[in-house]
Write a structure and sequence with these properties.
Blueprint (H helix, E strand, L loop, with lengths): L3 E6 L2 H9 L8 E3 L10 E2 L1 H4 L9 H7 L4 E3 L3 H16 L4 E6 L2 E5 L6 H19 L3 E6 L2 H11 L4 E3 L5 H6 L11 H8 L6 H5 L3 H8 L1 H10 L15 E12 L2 H22 L5 E8 L4 E7 L6 H17 L7 E9 L14
Helix pairs in contact: 4-5, 10-11, 12-13
């Protein structure tokens, strides 16, 4: 039997801002840049009552709630608080997987029974609030998918559990979009098949879902039946470092786009040096005015040479131009380094 907990900080950015300024309590808060192209990074529950949600254009959010207080994000501050929360969890005997800046999965299967696991989670919830002052919700179940669903049922600042053996019955009454894997497009496809609830989905044969969705069909079927064998993975090396930039106005100016790419590269390079990371793959992202997105990447020699890495970014961009991609205006660009090697054993790699 596995006992898997999912902890999710409630409106994390907003909660941190309220710690800094208690006068924000109870007010509709929007975290994001108040620009023409800005989006809502996070919002308070008071703002959500107006129909505002994360990733919504800031201008649209302001129309829905003109009296909302808009605060520019303080990413470094949020990272510092996130690190404190992570340390609270990693100081225990649990296997900890940090899924994002504000959520963690914990495998606490070493505990004797479900009641002990639930008490353990309650203790950690209280500890986070006592030590940091941030509200946090958790869900407890037999796997990661169910634990995440349980957390959503317990929010805000609450808890929820799904007893082992009741998974399928519990899921049956929920709408299909409660399954984390089912996004808007998949949900629309299922609804076109008259599948509205997870109970409806449980009644569909596995072979039919595989025929419609391919390999994802099997995963969807398993999740609908409460099956998820994905392990909680203890965090190891950094998998990737990336930066993105959204233009205030869509652009076809090659020089402007190239300079912004290089600016992103230089910001990433400082992180590579600080963390002693040696990338073996470099990628760039181009998102066009119509939101079509392409990604191009190249395998490189793992090293810290500034000029070599910079040229790798320029080469990929140059090849993208040759493909005719700048005939369409660019909305967003991104640079990403990944596939890191821990150490360099051949000094010759630096002589580039």
């Amino acid at each position: 039997m596995r006992y898997i907990a999912h902890f999710d900080l409630d409106s994390f950015y907003v909660s941190v801002e309220r710690l800094q300024n208690p006068e924000l309590m109870g007010k509709p808060i929007l975290i994001g840049n108040d620009t023409v192209r800005g989006v809502v990074a996070s919002c308070s529950y008071e703002a959500r009552t107006f129909g505002i949600r994360s990733a919504m254009p800031m201008q649209q959010a302001k129309l829905l709630c003109p009296r909302a207080i808009i605060i520019a994000p303080k990413h470094q501050l949020y990272k510092e608080y996130s690190k404190i929360i992570t340390n609270i969890f990693t100081s225990t005997n649990a296997i900890v997987e940090k899924a994002s800046i504000d959520e963690h999965y914990l495998d606490i299967s070493y505990l004797n029974d479900f009641d002990s696991a639930f008490s353990w989670c309650q203790d950690k919830k209280h500890k986070v609030f006592e030590q940091v002052g941030l509200p946090i919700s958790f869900g407890l179940a037999s796997n990661k998918t169910l634990a995440k669903i349980a957390t959503s049922e317990g929010k805000p600042n609450g808890s929820f559990y799904i007893l082992p053996g009741t998974e399928k019955v519990f899921l049956a009454t929920l709408p299909i979009n409660k399954i984390p894997l089912v996004g808007p497009k998949t949900a629309a496809r299922l609804k076109s098949m008259q599948i509205q609830t997870i109970s409806d989905l449980q009644g569909i044969e596995l072979i039919k879902l595989i025929h419609i969705f391919g390999k994802r069909g099997k995963i969807i079927w398993e999740r609908a039946h409460g099956i998820d064998k994905t392990p909680v993975k203890k965090q190891g090396l950094t998998k990737s470092v990336s930066k993105e930039y959204t233009f205030l106005e869509d652009s076809t100016d090659i020089i402007l786009i190239q300079n912004k790419l290089l600016d992103l590269f230089e910001r990433i390079y400082t992180i590579l040096i600080k963390k002693n990371l040696f990338p073996r793959t470099v990628s760039i992202k181009l998102r066009f005015k119509n939101f079509e997105t392409i990604n191009r990447q190249s395998v490189i020699q793992p090293n810290h040479n500034f000029n070599y890495l910079r040229q790798a970014v320029l080469d990929i961009f140059s090849n993208s131009i040759k493909e005719g991609n700048l005939e369409k205006a660019i909305r967003l660009i991104g640079v990403r380094f990944s596939n890191f090697q821990e150490k360099i054993y051949q000094a010759s790699l630096f002589k580039l």
